[in-house]
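Hi there,

I know you've been waiting on this one. I reran it after we fixed the sequence typo, so this is the corrected version. Both the input and the resulting structure follow.
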Amino acid sequence: MKINQSRKKALLLFSGGLDSILAAKILARQGIEATALTFVSYFFDAEQAKKSAEENKIKILTKDFSKKHFEIVRQPCFGHGAGMNPCVDCHLLMLKKAKKIAAREKFDIIATGEVLGQRPMSQNIEALKLIEREAGLVREILRPLSAKSLPETEMEKTGVVDRGKLLGISGRGRKEQIELAKKFGVKNYPSPAGGCILTDKEYSKKLRELIEKAKTIEERDLKLLRLGRHFWKGSEKIILGRNHVENIALKKLAERGDTLLELKNIPGPLALVRGKNRKAIELAKEKILKYAKKSENKNPEFSISS
């Protein structure tokens, strides 16, 4: 098939990991200019994506979809992974956003760095088909790393992209990607662990409790989940810092209506209580003493502020 030689533009979902970097390189190899699209939410940021884009001279767009993303975290249509990660719904949301941007900014291609079979929940063949269908992008998402292992896209059929210059990688191994990185001269890339805290089991456990017990949830509540030990007294939340750094962070995140407790005469954790409930404050005192450094002082004194 004759390949369309005019300069084409691709909008590439971009995490800043090795796969998305390689996808941009593969597109560039056939004269397609990739613009990275990365998203920011309450649970992941764009720092790695920005760093990787700068190092590899890739233009980048950053979109914050925190509120909409939190909606699907709470109630995903297609379920959670091992933690609170709604991977299928999350990727679908990203592609719906990308579709609108591509239409508005006149991109010729929507692409991702996905590898078939790499992630069991969201990158198996059925999940990829489901996401395409739900996003209204059947055969319109180019996956340069796995294209030859997937059905031919419209871009390949019409000659916008040369299928012969795409790859057919599949599975969870990284050997082929690492070899490609050497070939393309990509030296700096993060480990494949990912930057989404929703895959963390401890964080996910605390988030589930928050959703079940809190009357309202603000962005600050989600930030607090990253800090300290968490306890509940009814609907009141108690957070204990585990070290000096966390104690300082808790103080910075405290707002009007919160109660801060710390020991005056014994080294120990600071506690932040969401509210002024007397029983919650008493429980916070018990927890502080439990985790405080041992002391001969039998009369601990508390500093309480709000």
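Quick highlight: The chain has a mean pLDDT of 94.

Best,
R. S.
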